[in-house]
Structures are given as C-alpha cells and as structure tokens.
Design a protein that fits this description.
By secondary structure, the protein is an alpha+beta fold. It is about 30% helix and about 35% strand. The protein is built from four helices and six strands. It has a six-stranded mixed β-sheet.
Length: about 170
C-alpha cells in the first residue's frame, strides 16, 4: 500500500524531528514499519488526513474514535505534524480540519480531545483557531533524556448534547 509507506516515512520523521511532542519513539510506534502503518490505516473508526507537496506526503493529522461503547461519542486527535520545510502554509490546519470533519460525519460523535506538548506553541495556536479549549495541564508527561515536558489537554464540542445528557 503506497499510502502506508509514505505515512511510515512521515511518521518516522515526526518522531525524530519532535521527540518531545509524541509519546512514541520510532522503535515502539504503531507505524514502526510500512506493514504496521498499513494495518493501522485499514482499521475502522480512524482517519488520517494527509497534506502533499507534489507527490510527497508532508503533513498529517489523525482522528481515532474511542472503541468503548460509553465513550464512542469521543474522538482523539493525534499525530498532527507538518514537515519543517512547509510549515506556516496552512497544511496542519487543513489536515486537522479535514480529519475533524470526517469525525463529525460519524453517527454519535460529539467531542474531540487532544493533548499537546507545552513546547508546541504553533500547534496550540492551531488547535485554538479550530475552537479547542484548554481544560488542564498534566505535568511530566514526556521525558526525552533529562528534559521533562508537560502536556496541555484540550477539548472541542463537535455537536450538541441533548438536555440531561451530562447529568451524573
């Protein structure tokens, strides 16, 4: 699968370029080789939106629906990345918006959640521009060598809740 090889290459780049932004490393990633990437791409309830420059995949954003029945109204945004040479061209926003639009088309999906490294100021601004709101900070989530990074948790309402749906 050609898309799997392209995604594997971009995923490897993102993990090496920004290790502080992702919990995976190249050796333990779900897309650690083209075959694993292909299996991930085929799985239901997930989408990876890609941005291309010519024939090269240079940006990606993924949305995954929670598999648990009680949380099937939620999707997680992850793996958002734009190659350094093409940043600030709107590819990250376009990919993320496309992935979220796909999630909106899934019956019952109402909420998108994500975690973003405190260091990723551009990503934080991108998510805010799409309507995400910060709800918390988790300390010491990623460690790269002696450096520790916090994660900012954000949420976006994709749909409306019926009256009483949020009662305990």
């Amino acid at each position: 699968m050609e898309d799997a090889a392209a995604y594997h290459a971009l995923r490897t780049e993102m993990l090496e370029d920004s290790p502080w932004a992702f919990s995976s490393s190249p050796g333990d990633d779900r897309a650690r080789d083209p075959e694993s990437a292909a299996a991930y791409l085929r799985a239901p309830n997930r989408v990876i939106a890609g941005g291309f420059e010519g024939d090269e995949l240079v940006a990606a954003a993924s949305v995954v629906r929670d598999e648990h029945r009680k949380q099937a109204h939620r999707v997680s945004v992850w793996g958002v990345y734009v190659a350094p040479g093409v940043r600030k061209k709107g590819l990250g926003k376009a990919c993320t918006a496309l992935a979220l639009d796909t999630a909106r088309s899934w019956p019952g999906v109402e909420v998108a959640v994500l975690s973003v490294s405190e260091r990723a100021k551009g990503a934080i601004a991108l998510y805010r521009s799409l309507g995400f709101e910060q709800w918390g900070i988790e300390r010491d989530v990623i460690r790269v060598g002696d450096c520790r990074y916090d994660a900012i948790h954000m949420t976006l309402r994709l749909g409306t809740l019926a009256q009483g749906d949020n009662a305990s």
